[in-house]
Amino acid sequence: MKKSIPIAVFGILLLFGTVFALHAWREDRLAQARKGNAHPVVTVSAAKAAWATITPQSTAVGQIRAQQGAALSLQTAGVIRSLQFHSGETVQQGQVLLRLDPGPLPGELKEAQAQAKLATVNAQRAAQVYAIHGISTAELDKAKYGAEVANAKVRSLQEKLANTVLRAPFSGVLGLRKVELGEYLSAGKAAVRLESPQNLQVDFAVPQNLAPSVRVGESLRLQSRQGEKGQQFVAQVIAVDNHVDQANRALTVRAQIHKPGFLRPGMFVLVKLPTMSPERQLTIPQVAVAYHSYGDFVYVLKRQGQNWIAQATPVQLGAVEGQNVVVRNGLQAGDEVVTAGQVKLHNGDQVRINNAVSLH
After folding, report:
1. What is residue 240's three-state secondary structure?
2. Which of 26, 93, 201, 287 keeps 20 to 30 A from 212, CA to CA?
3. 295 lies in a domain?
């Protein structure tokens, strides 16, 4: 019995020792695996910093306007008797859009026309009698001017009657209808807006110090978004205001848009206006830049033997030009910068370049 106790104790110690040894061996293997996988080779795409000829530009926010556009209304008030248009309809110049109830105007016009005819006949007869010295000059003048007054009244009533009809002043596309049949339309109240979408312009303001760089006939670019994609448009300066706004010391410029596409009056666009002669500047793809509040940087690829190593490099950036951005400091022409795969990178990681596929 006494001999069995040491044997049991030895067995227990041997068991614990084996367990501890296995645990230590497993932890050592895991540590080696973690060390080997701490900085695996990362596949990235890359591009070289290159010189490009860029024209320095100033940007402004412009508003689209129609060359012809108006809120259509009538000078006469009345109840709408007929509506002859629909929202969004394309109309031609002179087309009738709505009519007001003319009330007694048609009857008054007929009465005035009859009186004008009678006055005209009386004036003609008076002239014939005056020719044979049958009446005095005063009576002839009374008959002649009486006819003129009667005809003037006819023209006045015709104009009043015409003012009860709303016609399109030019060809274009109507907006949303703002009135309904039977509604009382006040004088001057807009019934619908008419725009000519084929001839669109953009108005924007430039600071007074840039006024000398803006000239009539100069081309500029507009940028607007359609969904998630940006689209470029071309415009040409057609007029420059002759007065600087005292509130913001800016000069208003108007440009004609070529091929406006989806642009509509009232929309805002970004205007890019050339301000200096073209310059040779160093550029990289904009997607290569990691933007941070403490400073922008890019991953530059450096050779170490047969391997590429990524180094985080601070950069000072300039203007954005399309898909590229100007680099003012931090890089040299020919430097390889990472353009995709940065999210997996750490400073000093070994990388593999693969530009054949798009990396995310």
Report:
1. strand
2. 201
3. yes
